[in-house]
Amino acid sequence: MRVSDDAGAAARDGAGVVAAALRAAVAARGQAVLAVSGGRTPWAMLGLLAAEALPWAAVHVVQVDERVAPDGDPDRNLTGLREALTGAPLPPGNLHPMPVGAADLDAAARAYGEEVRMLSGGAPDVVHLGLGDDGHTASLVPGDPVLTVGDRWCATTGPYRGHRRMTLTYPALGAARLVLWLAVGAGKAPVLRRLLDGDPAIPAGRVAPREAVLVADRAALG
Predict the structure, then answer these.
(1) Helices 77-84 and 41-50, interaxial angle, to 10°?
(2) C-alpha to C-alpha distance for 153 and 198, rounded to whole angstroms
(3) Three-state secondary structure call for residue 119
(4) Are residues 58 and 26 in contact, defined by beta-carbon separation less than 8 angstroms?
(5) pLDDT grade, residue 72 (50/70/90)?
(6) How far apart (Å, rounded) are the C-alpha atoms in residues 65 and 100?
(7) For residues 119, 72, 179 and 116, what is the CA-based torsion angle, rounded to 10 degrees?
(8) In which band, very low, low, confident or very high, does the pLDDT at 41 lie, cut at 50, 70 and 90?
(9) pLDDT, the chain, mean
(10) What's the pLDDT at 196?
(11) Residue 94's Cα: distance from chain center in Å?
């Protein structure tokens, strides 16, 4: 666990953890795969990461989850992701958007999961995860059948807060070499305690990666 003074410090600390892991992955295996969740919390961290002197040509960025909405829609995680990484010399082909505009969403999700699995050699180097106030992470939301998916790396959800979603599943998250949890703000305190206790009653509590680092500010830790 890394305790940061405030949200800005947490963004810097998170960017440092990710940058170190990506450098190590490229040095060891010739490339790195970073999976990024949506929401507002990660954009500051990714903006700082974009300024890092990384071997960007060898870094691939994939999405952890996405709302089913048109390209460019402000509700799309991809919109914020592109903006946050504007300063990074990431080759255009190294950003892999979730295919939420496909006619057959279930087939597209399955194909995306296979793409991520093959690209990462079965083990994404870094998966960033956030934490919702209801205990969801990625788009693994309470009560949705997606929580039981165990035979593929990506699947779709039912409607949740106005949108269907596409999300990486527990098998994909569990295969990650490193999961970075990023939690800031006093509103996260109750559910963060449940995550730290490993509460399986919340979706976030069921993620079981090989290694995990939590970066949280003092407010989130209560």
Answers:
(1) 30
(2) 22
(3) helix
(4) yes
(5) confident
(6) 10
(7) -20
(8) confident
(9) 96
(10) 95
(11) 16
Looking at the chain, the whole-number percentage of residues with pLDDT higher than 90 is 93
pTM over 0.90: yes
How crowded is the C-beta side of 139, counted as CA atoms within 13 Å?
A: 30
Q: How many CB atoms lie within 10 A of CB 71?
A: 10
Give the domains, in start order, of the chain with CATH numbers.
2-217 (3.40.50.1360)
Burial of 27 (0-12, 13-18, 19+ CB in 10 A): exposed
Strand partners, 168: 154
For 151, which DSSP code? S
- Give the CA count within 13 Å in the CB-facing half-sphere of 119: 25
Q: Where does 97-144 show beta strands of DSSP type E? A: 126-129
In sequence order, the 6+-apart residues with CB closer than 8 A to the CB of 20 are none
Question: What are the CB-based long-range contacts (under 8 Å, 24+) for 150-159?
Answer: 152/109, 152/110, 152/113, 152/114, 153/112, 153/113, 153/114, 153/116, 153/117, 154/98, 154/109, 154/110, 154/112, 154/113, 154/116, 155/106, 155/109, 155/110, 155/113, 156/68, 156/105, 156/106, 156/109
Average pLDDT, stretch 61-87? 94
Quick one: pLDDT at residue 120?
A: 98
Q: Residue 205's CB: how many other CB atoms inside 10 A?
A: 17
d(CA 145, CA 125): 27
Q: What is the pLDDT of residues 129-186, one digit of tens each?
A: 999 999 999 999 999 999 999 999 999 999 998 899 999 999 999 999 999 999 999 9
**Beta-ladder partners of 182:** 215
